[in-house]
Structures are given as C-alpha cells and as structure tokens.
Specification:
By secondary structure, this protein is an all-beta fold. It is built from no helices and 9 strands. The protein has a single domain (2-82), classed as ATP Synthase, domain 1 (Sandwich), CATH 2.60.15.10. Strand 8 and strand 9 (86-91) form a beta hairpin.
Length: 92
C-alpha cells in the first residue's frame, strides 16, 4: 500500500509500505494491504510503519533500533484517510 505523511511544514514520507500502526482516539490500530476504506482521528503518539524493502532509506524519520526497516514518526494528533490502498495522514 502507499503511505503519505504530511505536516503543515513538509511531506514527511511518501512510499510503499507493508503495514502502518497508528494511535487512534480509542486505541492503537493497524492497517494492512487492501484495508477497507476508513477515516479516523489520531491522538498523540507514534506512527510506525514497515517499509516494503524496495528502499531502506527512510530519510529523516527515526528508525526502530531493532529493525531498520521500521519507520517511526511522533505526532501530536491528526487525521487518517485510507482509500484505494492509499493511506494519507495529515499530522501535527
């Protein structure tokens, strides 16, 4: 699936991923390939995603010390839209 993470200042990440874990208002949840369409508000926490392996360069994102293919991004809140195998996150 395609993941795009935007902040008011910049595009943080855009690429293909295997999974995304997110801090929802009612608890953490995960998106996998071909997930049903979804819109969700996000609370303060971490976005964690597993890179597809096609490119191990995660740019300025933090990586999990135990697995360098996992990207980590801290957010203060935001909104997620998942449609047509594309997850778009607008984050603070």
């Amino acid at each position: 699936m395609i993941l795009e993470i935007f902040t008011p200042e910049a595009i943080i990440f855009k690429g293909e991923v295997l999974s995304v874990s997110l801090p929802g208002l009612s608890g953490d949840f995960q998106l996998l390939n071909n997930h049903t369409p979804l819109i969700s508000a996000l609370r303060k926490g971490q976005i964690r995603f597993k890179n597809s392996g096609e490119s191990s360069d995660l740019g300025e994102l933090l990586t999990d010390p135990s697995d360098k293919t996992i990207g980590v991004f801290e957010i203060k809140g935001g909104v997620l839209e998942m449609v047509d195998n594309k997850a778009i996150i607008l984050a603070e």
